[in-house]
From TrEMBL:
Pfam family name, one: Rce1-like
UniProt keyword list: Endoplasmic reticulum, Hydrolase, Membrane, Protease, Transmembrane, Transmembrane helix
EC top class named in words: hydrolase
Topology relative to the membrane: Multi-pass membrane protein
Occurrences of domain CAAX prenyl protease 2/Lysostaphin resistance protein A-like (ranges): 164-246
EC number annotated for this UniProt entry: 3.4.26.1
Residue intervals passing through the bilayer: 36-56, 68-89, 109-128, 193-213, 262-281
Full protein name: CAAX prenyl protease 2
InterPro entries recorded: Rce1 (IPR039731), Rce1/LyrA-like_dom (IPR003675)
GO CC terms: endoplasmic reticulum membrane
Length: 308
């Protein structure tokens, strides 16, 4: 090598091929077209999910059991077919994730316990004020409340309640499957992992604005209260289900509560602890290897902050 001299070294450095993104190496479309395909695929998924709710024409409100049962059918069909959209996106862009589709979508055993417990704990900390308010307004004490919550009869009653099944089971599972598990792998190669994490809830939030039409149609809420409560931005299914159960924090009721001071202190403490613990409890190292990082490496993005 030394015999080659400076010119030889320069020749070797020039002739060394640079690493190209997966789509370019496979002769696929350029980055710009890949982004358009990704955004269009996500929009198609969002429209399909919301559109499936209105396949059944009915003059009944959305909380009527007959409406809920019909929507269960259409939403489950669309959610079951949503992974096919990711497969089609992979074929159109030429991107090979380097891992199985189910693993890429988050169906894996590695890190499952911290992934189930830590985000739920963090969300409950954020809702410290509403939880205190719920306990203050509850007529029974903690021991009686736990007995009722753990009683088989209570669970049997919940499993036959269509609204409970929708809010706590079907909606969290299907919405997280469509709006996170399917959309995140398609958006990450285009925007990067960080922006994609914040972009997916935007599709989720926009898809929930159809509730505005229904609530105004049946005069269930005012315009102001609807815009305050439409949509959640919580990711994991357990957190989604917990937020659906808690609803939007009743801040106005807390301001008029007889025990206003400790209650507002709980609200402030919950928000403060949430901000303090957000980074350590969402450290990717706690949840094992990230399949999305493998995808980003194969598309040429080797400097993703969440993957380093």
């Amino acid at each position: 090598m030394a015999a080659l001299g400076g010119d030889g070294l320069r020749l070797l450095s020039v002739s060394r091929p640079e690493r190209q993104p997966e789509s370019a190496a496979l002769g696929g479309p350029g980055p710009g077209l890949c982004c358009w395909v990704s955004v269009f695929s996500c929009l198609s998924l969002a429209c399909s999910y919301v559109g499936s709710l209105y396949v059944w024409k009915s003059e009944l409100p959305r909380d009527h059991p007959a409406v809920i049962k019909r929507r269960f059918t259409s939403v489950l069909v669309v959610s079951s077919l949503s992974p096919l959209c990711v497969l089609l996106w992979r074929e159109l862009t030429g991107i090979q994730p380097g891992t199985s589709l189910l693993t890429l979508m988050g169906f894996r055993l590695e890190g499952i316990f911290p992934a189930a417990l830590l985000p739920l704990l963090l969300t409950m900390i954020l809702f410290l004020g509403p939880l205190m308010q719920l306990s203050m307004d509850c007529p029974c004490d903690l021991a009686d409340g736990l007995k009722v919550a753990l009683a088989p009869r209570s669970w049997a009653r919940c499993l036959t309640d269509m609204r409970w099944l929708r809010n706590q089971v079907i909606a969290p599972l299907t919405e997280e499957l469509v709006f996170r598990a399917c959309m995140l792998p398609m958006l990450a190669p285009c925007t990067g992992l960080g922006p994609a994490v914040f972009t997916c809830p935007l599709f989720f939030g926009v898809a929930h604005f159809h509730h505005i039409i229904e609530q105004l149609r049946f005069r269930q809420s005012s315009v102001g209260s609807i815009f305050l409560s439409a949509g959640h931005l919580i990711g994991p299914v357990l957190c989604h289900s917990f937020c659906n159960y808690m609803g939007f924090p009743a801040v106005c009721a807390a301001l008029e509560h007889p025990q206003r001071r400790p209650l507002l202190a709980g609200y402030a403490l919950g928000v403060g602890l949430f901000l303090l613990l957000l980074q350590p409890l969402t450290d990717p190292k706690l949840y094992g290897s990230l399949p999305l990082c493998v995808l980003l490496e194969r598309t040429g993005d080797t400097k993703a902050p969440l993957c380093s």
